[in-house]
Amino acid sequence: MRGKARATVSGRHWRWACAASALLAGFSPLAVSADPIATVDRNGALVSVEPYAPGIVRVTIATDRAESEGKPGYGLIAKSNASGWSHRADATGDVFASPGMTVTVAAQPWPKPPNQMERYFAPSLPPVSISFARPDGEPLTRMNGWEKAPHTVSDEKTFRVGASFSDTPDTHYYGLGQYQDGVLDLRGRTIDCRHDYDRPGGESVCVPFMVTDKGYAILWDNPSATTVSPGLLNATKFASNVGERVSFFVIAGKTTDELYAGYARLTGATPLPPKAAFGLIQSKARYETQGQLTEIADGYRKRGLPLDIMVLDWFYWTRMGQLDIDRTAFPDPAGMNAHLESMGMQSIISIWPRFERESRYFDTLAAKGWLMKDKDGNPVDGLPIRSDRAGALIDSTNPQARAWFWDKIRDNIFAQGFDYAWLDETEPDLVPEGHFFSIGSGDRYRNVYPLLHTSSVAEGSARDRPDKRNLILCRAAYLGTQANGCLFWSSDVQSNWEALRRQVPAGLGMTASGIAYWSSDTGGWQWPNGPEARAPVLVDPAGATAMAPSYRDYPELFVRWFQYNAFTPTLRIHGQRPGTALWDYGTAAEPILANILRLRYALMPYLYALGRQTSQTGAPFMRALFMDFPNDPAVKDLGDEYMFGPAFLVAPVTEQGQTSRRVYLPGGTDWYDWWTDKRYTGGQWIEAAAPIDHIPLFVRAGSIVPMGVQVPSTATAQNLESIRVYPGRDASFTLYDDDGTTNAWRKTGGRSATLHWNDATRQLTANGRLPTGQTLAPLVKIIGR
């Protein structure tokens, strides 16, 4: 009982506990110690109830008290807090109440002797029923069953654990990570929640946080492979492959943003990335020499095209695991990075977690036991699939291995002037099932590797580069990984129209999981290959060198993908093709691409303000429509359009040869066509024009959109060109700026001013000086005047 008093209420055991808990020393993303407000006994099923805020509660169920009162798992860093909560017991059960939620652990009668049928189909667990409601009694959900079935996994006797929640036919479910199945709403589906690079539709990523449109979310606290069936056959079920308890959090909120605030409270805030992260990130698989990389960077400047970051992808090393730079191909990496810096650019370099046997560190890592092992204790080397037979995986679950990895990155790579790390293969690519980490079996900790591996760089950078803002390009996520400064992307997707269509709902599902920074490789990563165009090609491929001549519609695909990614949180060009720069898609494509790129940079004041808001609230700014229009049933399963911040509705074109598309304009507001300023009434479908040089783009009435002057990169101070106001309702928007690169914003809060639009008086005012120091009045442009 860890020294706590225990009392008995109506034959049930419970204990009062202080709400404080401490972070584990030295590693913030690990779990914290937990003290439940009470543990109640339901005929041998021990149910611990642990509040974290008025609208957040953790429930743990086990048959062993140490398990039911154990700490949360990896990625959960919050301290429990029972302030405002009360507990009473009556004939209905144990009731825990706060201003944000009521939790009732239902009373259970003494079990009766089983009848003949029950002797054959005998339940192995005492029943538990827990209801969750708003303070006024309105139901949220109910856990009405739990599972703990014994089995053996990787020679470990353990259990399959799960829980079943009630459902209503009009509940919709979102999140759980990234699934490239082409569908946003999870209802009626079965989600295999595990990281899987080889999922047929594109890589899957498990973030076991599920949001509903009914004012609650469930965070499932188990890192093993988990199956989730939201709203299937009148129930929502979670089942994890390894565990000894059921552990989950329920978050209640009046808005979806309150649910994301709860997620951030539990797992960590999303930091504000360096401003360069919002600009163009130019990459290729791969630049083989220093000259090739600098030639592309110089090409952007010569053409007057903005660019912020150049990326050096894999095989710049002498061997995988050397953690070095091939000086034959890259004779002066420090000079290369200094050249980029002189043009206002920064750099990202790909760093893999794999070590070939012949690499200089393999023997050391193997001797120390810092590599993932097989059942016999030997390092796992390579994959049995994809002809991928080289390299062992560093065991980033070991804190010593993490520290060693960061030290080598710092001394061998960042010392050459590289700014940020791209941590590829963070699934990890060497599949953990049947293998072993320092913390236990890969089956038990199947999904936790992205969190722990990215922590090596996040924590090392914070310690050794405290003044430099961190950024990590990451290929997979878990609970809390967003707090490590990761920018996520959808992995190595195909380069065809179907893959593009799948990106839109996949990205909205990822951001709905509390992962705000997500995008995709513009144009796809795999070698350009697609079926023959069925409609007339809209972009003449003349002069294009990015693909084989037979793929005539690839420049058109790239234009549409670039238009889409210009309205995702980050914009990166990448791919396995001869050329990836803007001028490699032909003379017809280049001016279209240049214009949408310049629009992206013109919107930088808007974008950066959204990033600051996410760091404060935890809410994503690439938003499925259910988040902002909860009362419009037409948007519940709409996965091919979305809000980008409070102003923009984005409707990507994902069909070859398409020059218009149906767009739904949500009800309750009017909308303006960005390109024509035409005003529409919401709550209707329209046929929106989509010529090849335009993405259908609408602005919500009552929006304030700051526009910046053109700059070559975010390293150049950007004045405001205008502040556009779209009348229709009162509005506010907070402008924000800072130095864009350091962590001073954490202490000073940067420079901000809140703009207020009074729709009745048609006046825009500011509560202080604009971050740019400009005068407000000359900048104001009222649309539709």
**Strand numbers in spatial order across the main sheet:** 6-7-8-9-10-11-17-16-13
Second CATH tier, the architecture of one domain: Sandwich
Residue stretches low in confidence (pLDDT < 50, at least 5 long) are 1-34
CATH superfamily assignment of one domain?
Answer: glycosyl hydrolase (family 31)
Using only C-alpha atoms, the radius of gyration works out to 27 Å
The CATH class label of one domain is Mainly Beta
* Chain-averaged pLDDT: 94
The amount of helix comes to 10-25%
What form results from the Cα inertia axes?
globular
- Strand content range: 25-35%
Could you name the CATH topology of one domain? Immunoglobulin-like
Oligomerization: single chain
Number of strands: 44
Largest sheet: 9 strands, antiparallel
Number of helices: 13
User: Helix/strand/pairing class, anyone?
Assistant: alpha+beta
Q: Kindly report how far apart the N and C termini lie.
A: 70 Å
Q: In a few lines, what is going on in this structure?
A:
This protein has 785 residues and is of the alpha+beta class. The chain contains 13 helices and 44 strands. Residues 270-610 form the Glycoside hydrolase family 31 TIM barrel domain.
Structure, described:
The protein is of the alpha+beta class. It is built from 13 helices and 44 strands. Strands 6-7-8-9-10-11-17-16-13 form a nine-stranded antiparallel β-sheet, with no helix packed on it. An eight-stranded parallel β-sheet has the order 29-28-27-24-21-20-19-30. Strands 3-4-5-18-15-14-12 form a seven-stranded antiparallel β-sheet.
